[in-house]
Amino acid sequence: MSTFAIEKNTRTRPLASELSPEQIRSTVEDELRNIPFIDVHTHLFMPSLGQLGLWGIDELLTYHYLEAELFRSSRVAPAEYWTLNKQQQADLIWQTLFVDNPPVSESTRGVVAVLNAFGLDTRTRDLKQAREFFAQRELAAHIRSVFKLAGISEVAMTNDPLDPQEAEAWEAGAAPDPQFKAVIRLDRLLDKWAEYVPKILSKGYLVDVEMSVNALTEVRRFLHDWAQTMNPVYMACSLEDTFQYPEDSPRAKLLTRAVLPACRELNIPLSLMIGVRRQVNPTIRLAGDAAGVADLRAVERMCSAFPDNRFLVSVLSRENQHELCVYARKFANLMPFGCWWFLNNPSIVEEITRERIEMLGTTFIPQHSDARVLEQVIYKWRNTRRTMAPIFTNSYTLLVEDGRAVTREDICHDIKRMFRSNFERWIAPDGVSSSRP
Ligand code: RAT
Ligand code: ZN
Fold first, then answer.
1. pLDDT at residue 435, rounded to an integer
2. Is the CB of 342 under 6 A from ligand 1?
3. What local confidence, expressed as pLDDT, does residue 432 receive?
4. Class of 27-427 per CATH?
5. Is the CB of residue 343 less than 8 Å from the CB of residue 318?
6. Which residue, judged by its Cα, is nearest atom 12 of ligand 1?
7. Which residues of 359-378 are buried (b: 16+ CB within 10 A; e: fewer)?
8. Domain ranges in the chain?
9. Over the range 256-265, which residues count as b (16 or more CB within 10 Å of their CB) and which as e?
10. Cβ 341 under 6 angstroms from ligand 1
11. Counting ligands in written order, which one lies closest to the CA of residue 67?
12. pLDDT at 6 over 80
């Protein structure tokens, strides 16, 4: 107990199940380990979507987070790197970031954790053993074991109906999979409207670049049709740090007149991921995006103007985090989620999570993995649990010091709420999910 602990009020009868300060930490760790989480934002795909789903050692090593690190430690130029095939790229990254240098960064350490989880050699000079191991895995069984190792039960995908390869797979009748929930991703629709008008027209929707009233109705029909096909748990878009709402732009019109009404009709939330600065260095491709501070008044205006919509919001800049918590205290239709992308590092996750608990209790979703490669969920969720354990322990210790007993049931309730039911209730507030069982 700290020197600031207030002496216990002896009139309060102790509960039989009351945890001592020493038991709190181990109970938090147990419950974090035992409760399967829902991963609310990933770039993983269900097996029926075919080649879109990435897994195995070569994909793990060519993750764009690691590509960004390669160009800092190697003299290879991006243009040269892109001429290599996937295995050559993976070999180069392994040699540079794992053999020539100890892999201490968050993303490199993650690969080590994955290899270790499967009992593979983490100090090997070549990738032969790992390649052989992944080559003999059967995908469905592998997914089950990866989810188990990661401690997750379901993941939300990112499904863009305007991605030609993905649309084709859905149109061919991709079988649903209860472990993978669909999410309609709107980036192309919202940001490249003029470019995609011919494509949407070719699918039988009477849209026009000028965005007539009829075109907006047609976009709504397009979204409903895709909702029928994908059965999404929410719709989502990522937005630049310069995002404003309202504004005179195709995006704002689409949001107001098509996307938000469709979300209301389908009774699903809209996820806004705000603060990306796209392609500040296009030569490194996917790794070339950066982060910027956004004007969150746009979120304020949307939450206030559309009280019947629910918003999931993640912001990329560390500087916007406190403000997001303040807005969540103003608007009950705003659910902050995750420590997104460049924020998914223990030092920053710790700061953000403490701030959120202090300001919002347990009314937020602490983390998502953003995994692009299946096995990444193993290390990303392991890291999340490791970072969160002392934070939750500290919250309960303070509570005990202030005179309220804490039980295992309390801890279980809170962890379930943050990592499962906040999301479940957000996507299906009436307890009836619009998604297939
Ligand atoms: O974290 C990432 O992998 C980013 O490249 C983005 O995909 C981001 O998470 C997004 O969903 O836009
Ligand atoms: Zn993402």
1. 43
2. no
3. 56
4. alpha beta
5. yes
6. 238
7. bbebbbbbbbbbbbbbbbbb
8. 27-427
9. bbbbbbbbee
10. yes
11. 1
12. no
